[in-house]
TrEMBL record:
Protein name per UniProt: Mitochondrial poly(A) polymerase
GO molecular function: ATP binding; magnesium ion binding; manganese ion binding; poly(A) RNA polymerase activity; protein homodimerization activity; UTP binding
CDD domains membership: NT_PAP_TUTase
Compositionally skewed regions (Polar residues) per UniProt: 561-571
InterPro entries, alphabetized: MTPAP-like_central (IPR054708), NT_sf (IPR043519), PAP_assoc (IPR002058), RL (IPR041252)
Originating species: Macaca nemestrina
Length: 582
């Protein structure tokens, strides 16, 4: 359940001058990604008002409210594969025969697709009733009615494409480096990174729609099931390109008919029994995996990974471009997502710092899409939260204090674990801490560069360091299953790499002259400088070397930056989204 995608960083020559803020004309152009028009349009969005679904100006919704609203929205939505050239007006007029459309957008992912949200759910049924199963000359179609449709032109007239494009790709590494170097401060850099990489409104909608489409398939067996997104797709820390973690929730199926009748009798379903919950989970996922493989339109590369600690079905949803991990009986992970959603929404610095650290870790190959002995994004996020709990005054409350704010409605026990914490964000007092992002980033590296990992564990429940209960190199207590370590997989050498890089980055950021020298020498500075890969003379950075004169060190650093090299700078494997609103 992690992120694929790497990119190349080429050296930057363009950042001698910081960006000057110019009033841009409002563009209504048919623009292509990567063009000047597109660049300008990207700049048109005032800072802080990007569509994320999580922006500050939106009243802070409870996680469950947000999930329910988005799920209901997704149920009124269809996904349509479109001909390459299409008139948007004709397209909308055609679909409006089935009812008013609330919202739509187009995106490209090996073809042109449209996401169309009707105002009413009945419109979807009406559209499906007017849709046929394709007949093919050479192959046979397995008949399957879903909300994933194809639109064909009856007459092959040459349609003019009149679609407004809004590129939702993360920026190229070069563009990102430019943006970071043009920023006015490190705070500006971190906010820029967040703005460029956070999930867009359209991307979030597509994630909920994909879950809804999978729910339709699973509903063939479990009519009352719900497929809920969790993890970074919904916890406010998702980057464009992150995987889509899904939770097949069968609670309704399990509990529906309890105590509905009066009298002296109780009816129960006749069911098959298996020896354990785990075996039940494996059987359910196995069947759903088969179903996705055989009947799921656009579901390819289905893998059943049933012997994992947390059994899952992994597949690619071709039309959305998402790598999906479907689990069931994983409610604690959903609750963890809810907790992270609260932390991510409480203070605007949290997400900016987490994105900065995630990008930094990815750039230095501290994290990977392949499971292994490395730190995960989830663990990194916990480390940032812990660090922010340790500030004075704290920027984030401990989980225990969120528990004390909980009311009766928030009481929650999952598999014997206490998962109670306040869900209503308005009941949490904002922090009085006013530290800048720049300071926090530097202090993060300083803090973890010197953390006593050999004896202490990280614990966001209490917000303080504790003795490690075992000898795992990195011990981050699972916030809900408190006897577990979420970073048990991390090896000593990976931890050491993290510590070395944290120390090195703290050092780079502390060089007082870095900023000034960089600007005058057209070199990456601040955040851009620490997103560069480690090169031999930086890797050999030691405490001894730290004592060298600052001038010599900076000179070496700049020398190393001059050499031509490539880097894993950011993740860029996301499709392009084209958006319009009716
Ligand atoms: P990215 O996919 O890397 O962007 O982040 P993510 O937070 O979605 O991580 P991932 O896909 O690996 O896992 C999805 C969710 O599963 C996380 O957000 C957690 O809620 C949960 N999770 C992941 N790893 C662990 C773990 O080691 N222990 C526990 N208890 N939960 C985990
Ligand atoms: Mg994930």
């Amino acid at each position: 359940m992690a992120v694929p995608g790497v990119g190349l960083l080429t050296r930057l020559h363009l950042c001698a001058q910081r960006r000057t803020r110019v009033q841009r004309p409002i563009l209504r152009l048919l623009s292509c990604p990567g063009t000047v028009a597109e660049d300008l349009r990207r700049d048109e969005q005032p800072s802080g008002s990007v569509e994320t679904g999580f922006e500050d100006k939106i009243p802070r919704k409870r996680f469950s409210e947000m999930q329910n609203e988005r799920r209901e929205q997704a149920q009124r939505t269809v996904l349509i594969r479109c001909p390459e050239k299409i008139s948007e007006n004709k397209f909308l007029k055609y679909l409006s025969q089935h009812g008013p459309i609330n919202n739509h957008f187009f995106y490209e992912s090996f073809g042109l697709y449209a996401v169309v949200e009707f105002c009413r759910k009945e419109s979807v049924g009406s559209l499906q009733n007017g849709t046929r199963t394709p007949s093919m000359a050479m192959e046979t179609a397995i008949p399957f009615r879903s909300r994933f449709l194809s639109l064909k032109l009856k007459n092959q007239t040459s349609e003019q494409s009149c679609i407004q494009l809004s590129d939702q790709l993360p920026p190229s590494n070069r563009k990102l480096c430019e943006l970071l170097c043009y920023a006015e401060s490190m705070d500006d850099q971190l906010n820029t990174l967040l703005k460029e990489f956070q999930l867009t409104e359209e991307n979030t909608k597509l994630r909920y729609l994909t879950c809804s489409l999978i729910e339709d398939i699973a509903a063939a067996y479990f009519p009352d099931c719900v497929v809920r997104p969790f993890g970074s797709s919904v916890n406010t820390f998702g980057k464009l390109g992150c995987d889509l973690d899904m939770f097949l929730d069968l609670d309704e199926t399990r509990n529906l008919s309890t105590h509905k009748t009066s009298g002296n009798f109780l009816t129960e379903f006749q069911v098959k029994n298996v020896p354990s919950e785990r075996i039940a989970t494996q059987k359910i996922l196995s069947v759903i995996g088969e179903c996705l493989d055989h009947f799921g339109p656009g579901c390819v590369g289905v893998q059943k990974i049933l012997n994992a600690r947390c059994p899952l079905v992994r597949f690619s949803h071709q039309a959305s471009g998402f790598q999906c991990d479907l689990t069931t009986n994983n409610r604690i992970a959903l609750t963890s997502s809810e907790l992270l959603y609260i932390y991510g929404t409480l203070d605007s610095r949290v997400r900016a710092l987490v994105f900065g650290i995630r990008c930094w870790a990815r750039a230095h190959s501290l994290t990977s899409s392949i499971p292994g002995a490395w730190i995960t994004n989830f663990s990194l996020t916990m480390m940032v939260i812990f660090f922010l709990q340790r500030r004075s005054p704290p920027i984030l409350p401990t989980l225990d204090s969120l528990k004390t704010l909980a009311d009766a409605e928030d009481k929650c026990t999952i598999e014997g674990n206490n998962c109670t914490f306040v869900r209503d964000l308005s009941r949490i007092k904002p922090s009085g801490n006013t530290e800048t992002l720049e300071l926090l980033l530097k202090e993060f590296f300083e803090y973890f560069g010197n953390f006593a990992f050999n004896k202490n564990s990280i614990n966001i429940r209490q917000g303080r360091e504790q003795n490690k209960p075992d000898s795992s190199p990195l011990y981050i207590q699972n916030p809900f299953e408190t006897s577990l370590n979420i970073s048990k997989n991390v090896s000593q050498s990976q931890l050491q790499k993290f510590v070395d890089l944290a120390q090195e980055s703290a050092w780079v950021l502390q060089q007082k002259d870095t900023d000034r020298l960089s600007v005058s020498n057209n070199q990456p500075w601040g955040l851009a400088a620490i997103l560069l890969p480690t090169v031999p003379n930086r890797r050999s950075f030691t405490k001894k070397k730290r004592k060298r004169s600052a001038n010599e060190s900076v000179r070496n650093l700049l020398e190393s930056l001059k050499s031509n090299r490539t880097a894993n700078f950011t993740e860029t494997n996301e499709k392009r989204t084209v958006s319009t609103q009716t």
